[in-house]
UniProtKB/TrEMBL annotation:
Residue spans crossing the bilayer: 6-28, 71-91, 97-120
Lineage of the organism: Eukaryota, Metazoa, Ecdysozoa, Arthropoda, Hexapoda
Protein name (Swiss-Prot/TrEMBL): Uncharacterized protein
Key words of the record: Membrane, Transmembrane, Transmembrane helix
Length: 189
């Protein structure tokens, strides 16, 4: 009974995660496009269009972060709890649990680890690419007005709750938590 409810919950979580990652891929594609146009052209009309596009991305990023600010930590907790329980099922209950449950646990853990390995670096790339965009515009040299405009640009980030944003080390930290709590559950039960 627990396994079926966990699997159904994970299906919903993965569905929302796929939608979120697709939105982040849109951000990255737009940033790539305006970074490449930065390198190729330097006239004022292109600068205004690139800056307008970046400002629009900032607005969308802000709305995205407001929408997932309370949802993202809960989804991450669900993923960690499911990975720990399914890891326990795979390691300790292989002989006594039904084979269908063990196969589902292995499949679900593989999907969770694959999602963590693929999605979190994509989320972390958003920060790097937005920093590249701002740096390229700063290196081009510009008037005082453009310098003020560039100082007002902030990096695009995916916030995980109110306290920290996704960066390159988040993936390793999440995998470390899953391994630690799985081993703690196996040792204690």
């Amino acid at each position: 009974m627990i396994s079926s409810s966990l699997i159904h919950t994970c299906i919903a979580v993965f569905g929302f995660a796929i939608i979120g990652v697709n939105l982040i891929l849109f951000f990255l594609d737009m940033l790539d496009m305006i970074i490449l146009s930065n390198i190729k052209a330097t006239n004022i009309s292109n600068y205004v269009a690139r800056m307008r596009t970046f400002r629009q991305l900032q607005i969308i990023n802000s709305v995205y972060n407001q929408a997932i600010r309370h949802l993202f930590p809960v989804i991450t907790l669900i993923i960690v709890v499911v990975a720990v329980i399914m890891g326990y099922v795979v390691i300790n209950l292989t002989g006594s649990a039904p084979h269908a449950l063990v196969i589902n646990a292995v499949t679900l853990n593989a999907a969770i680890f694959g999602f963590i390995q693929l999605a979190f670096p994509i989320m972390a790339d958003l920060l790097g690419k937005s920093a590249d965009f701002i740096m390229i515009l700063e290196l081009q040299g510009c008037s005082n007005y453009r310098k003020r405009q560039l100082r007002s640009c902030r990096h695009l980030k995916i916030w995980a709750g109110s306290y920290f944003f996704i960066h390159k080390g988040t993936r390793v930290t999440l995998l470390e938590l899953i391994a630690y709590y799985t081993m703690s559950l196996i040792i204690s039960v």
